[in-house]
Predict the structure of Urocanate reductase.
Amino acid sequence: MPLEVEIKNDKICKIKTKKKMIPGSLEETVFTKVPNEIIKNQSLSVDAISGATHSVDGLLNAVEKVIEQAGGNAQEYKKEQKEINLNKKHVSAHFSNDFSSWRTKPEQIVKEYNTDFLIVGAGISGLAAAVQARQLDLNTIVIDKNGFVAGNGSGVEGIFGINTKMQKAAGIHAEKEDIISKEAELGQYRADGSFWVDLINNSADNIDWLVNLGVQLTKVDDYHGTCMFPTFHWFKGGFASVGYVPYMKKKADELNVKFLLETSATSIIEENGTIKGVYAKTPEGYIKINAKATLLATGGVGHNPDLLEQQGWSTKNIHYCSMPSNTGDGYQMAMSVGAMDMLKESPEFMMNYIQAFPHEGVHLYLDPINGFMSLPSGGPVVFVNQDGRRFVNENVKKYNLLYQRMAIKATKVTYEIFTQRIFDKLTKNVENADEILAKALKENEGNSLFKANSISELAQKVNLPVAILSKTMKLYNSYCDNGKDLEFNKDKEMLVSMKDGPYYIARLDPSNLIGVGGIGSNRKFEVISNNFEKIPGLYASGMDSTMQYRDVYTITLGGSACAHNVNSGRQAAKNAKQYIQNL
């Protein structure tokens, strides 16, 4: 981010960005709010902004350098930083299933609001719900613990749609029933298929609605060849932060939606079995929001290690691609009022990464070496468990990118074995790949990557049974020679012999992009109890409510999660309107 910083008469008087920023984005929040605080207080000690640690640190570092260049002492502009961290509330070191704290009334309320419709979370789904609600003349308040809208939605690349105008213009056609039946098959027929019918039947209308609101879509395809059908509609710029968020926020503002940012829901209000709103924490203190209907759209549980472990995932060495704000607040509030618990049946967008290789930022999954379609995802490599045994088809990602991690959930630890020849093949289009590999070996973050001249030496590097690993690799090489994997039937073209070194072994650690689901709901997106009875006044949408999935996200239908986010937000608003009218 290019900055212009001016110091005059021993005072910081200007901090200005030299880049056009998207209205309502994380960038705009950081590079307008923080400079104002620095200039006003003449201090580099500013309140943290949830979800923007790196951006704030970068800005402060830049101003500090200018102070030093101007002959000043940056330390004089520092004092103990008061950090407002709304993300870690209710995340305890010793997790329990007691969610009673999410029913606690704060001792002091500094302000009270009244509204028809309260939306907790301003991501893809929350924005869709907000615009739809105002189009239905519902007084609407949206709160978000971040200092900006979008949440995890910023990184969403596109949205699913079937038989849309864009597809018809491109000569693309697919039968709805083919898609629905394939999704049922991939989900082992465990989900209520009517959720898929509704989503797919509404998808074209939802996209028309978005386009009419100004949302920018550029092309439709099969998402890098990973989808069964060409149904992936790309947002302008390749991200919702460019093609979706600014246009939806602008429309919401035009419709007078009230946004309360840096406002974190801390507990839910229930009276006689009916939900009446939430209590929330702001930088000024606790507030009470009375609402006739409340929508939970908090983005799932993807940044809460306790809840991930409840699902059976290991969180040791985990890399989070999700926003730090996605701590499962909506899920925990819903559980506190007796909602159906779908967490253990809900999938995570969990993939592999290797700690020694570059893994900076939230877009790790796009890294050309360490991403979800690159080296750690599998292919012509060998995966072995803690016993030195193969346990899965290493090319299973071709059926679903998320399958690369599923079997690893059943192991204590998993290692990937490859040779220099395989590495060169997988990284042939990556500039300076050999230099990156050499640096990774030298620094070896997390003791996760080793090189050896023999398989036995490789086993010793990570304390695997030498005899078992040697046998595993001898068998694997025979499969490569014969062109037939007699254990897991891996594709012939992915059987590459590893008779010649040098050899590498890397530990595969978890990289989590988003949490998907957790709260039981019906087709009206009303939150339901264990006996399928609705909890009056409470709705769930987006990644808090994904009843169409079980255990694994079927990414083969590209963009279906985003399509669900928009659809569930819209439908929840429509159904809340009917509910409010009947009160």
Q: What stands out?
A: The longest helix spans residues 560-581. Residues 206 and 567 are 7 Å apart (CA to CA). The radius of gyration is 25 Å. The chain has three domains: 3-77, 114-346+516-581, 350-512.
